[in-house]
DNA sequence: AACGTTCAACGTAAATGTACGATAGATAAG
DNA sequence: CTTATCTATCGTACATTTACGTTGAACGTT
């Protein structure tokens, strides 16, 4: 995370919406979320084969989604299974719905 | 606008969600949208006085929101009145709702 | 032990984003 | 005509993002 952004002066809701929006601000990450939902979970390799970017780039996007709290990784050696963090996803949904309903 | 991003390989919906999310990925822009909604419209100066950033930075954020299509500017010399583009805003809402409902 | 698979992490180049002060243009006010 | 107000834009500095190839760690299989 770590922006070049002044955080003081905004309320928590504004920061939360911005953070989740940031996590969804790249089509690859949107696509990853969709895949994880459709399939209930994916290995990294499954995602790589569905997206037009390299494995290292996919890993980077997964890391961002993890740091945003939207997805969970569980080791299943030698693979890693990714799935949506439903609690956090529900939170994000609430933040956005609240934002959109009021605006 | 203008990413370092490969666009090929994603569908239109993914790109639309990502673009709108990008527009909302900074707390200042979230705050601006909220202000414009609450007040039905604002002059640039009104926004500057509500945010913890400089006038030039506010102008930059307004420009991004304009380019994302979310807001409209009308000249009222020597001021400029900004308001939500309700049509585009409704579109964004639909894209996100569709995205959240399916995921 | 050697090998293959899977994935994270490193290093890097180029593009973008964020923020600011300063400047410039347009208009209204005096 | 001069001045003050409002806002866009320019220039700049620094951080972040995106993408890739490469490497390395962890594990299973032979």
Q: Mean of the pLDDT scores of chain A?
A: 92
User: What class, by secondary structure content of chain A?
Assistant: alpha+beta
Beta strand count of chain A:
3
What's the tally of helices of chain A?
Answer: 5
CATH structural fold name of chain A: Arc Repressor Mutant, subunit A
Output the helix-strand order of chain A: HHEHHEEH
Tell me the fraction of residues in β-strands of chain A, as a range: 5-15%
| Quaternary organization | homodimer
List the chains of the largest interface with their residue counts. A-B, 37 and 37 residues
Helix content of chain A: 55-70%
Rg of chain A, Cα atoms, Å: 15 Å
CATH homologous superfamily of chain A, by name?
Winged helix-like DNA-binding domain superfamily/Winged helix DNA-binding domain
Number of domains of chain A: 1
CATH C-level of chain A = Mainly Alpha
Overview of this protein structure:
Two copies of one chain form a homodimer. Chain A is an alpha+beta fold. Chain A has one domain: Orthogonal Bundle (Arc Repressor Mutant, subunit A), CATH 1.10.10.10. Helix content of chain A is 60%, strand content 14%. Chain A has five helices and three strands, in the order ααβααββα. Chain A has helices at 12-23, 27-39, 44-50, 55-67, 86-102; strands at residues 42-43, 71-76, 79-84. Chain A has a three-stranded antiparallel beta sheet. In chain A, α1 (12-23) packs across α5 (86-102) and α3 packs across α4 (55-67). Chain A binds a DNA duplex (30 and 30 nucleotides) through residues 2-6, 26, 28, 43-45, 48, 53-64, 75, 77-80. Chains A, B: Keywords: DNA-binding, Transcription, Transcription regulation. Chains A, B: This is DNA-binding transcriptional regulator, ArsR family. Chains A, B: InterPro entries: ArsR-like_HTH, HTH_ArsR_DNA-bd_dom, HTH_MetalResp_TranReg, WH-like_DNA-bd_sf, WH_DNA-bd_sf. Chains A, B: GO terms for molecular function: DNA binding; DNA-binding transcription factor activity. Chains A, B: Residues 9-103 form the HTH arsR-type domain.
């Amino acid at each position: 995370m770590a922006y070049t952004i002044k955080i003081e002066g905004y309320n928590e809701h504004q920061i939360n919406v911005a953070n989740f929006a940031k996590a969804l601000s790249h089509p690859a990450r949107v696509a990853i979320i969709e895949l994880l939902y459709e399939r209930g979970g994916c290995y990294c390799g499954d995602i790589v084969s569905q997206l037009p970017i390299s494995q290292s780039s996919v890993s980077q996007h997964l890391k961002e989604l993890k740091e945003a709290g939207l997805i969970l990784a569980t080791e299943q050696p030698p693979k890693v299974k990714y799935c949506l963090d439903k609690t956090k996803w529900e939170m994000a949904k609430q933040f956005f719905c609240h934002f959109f309903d009021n605006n």
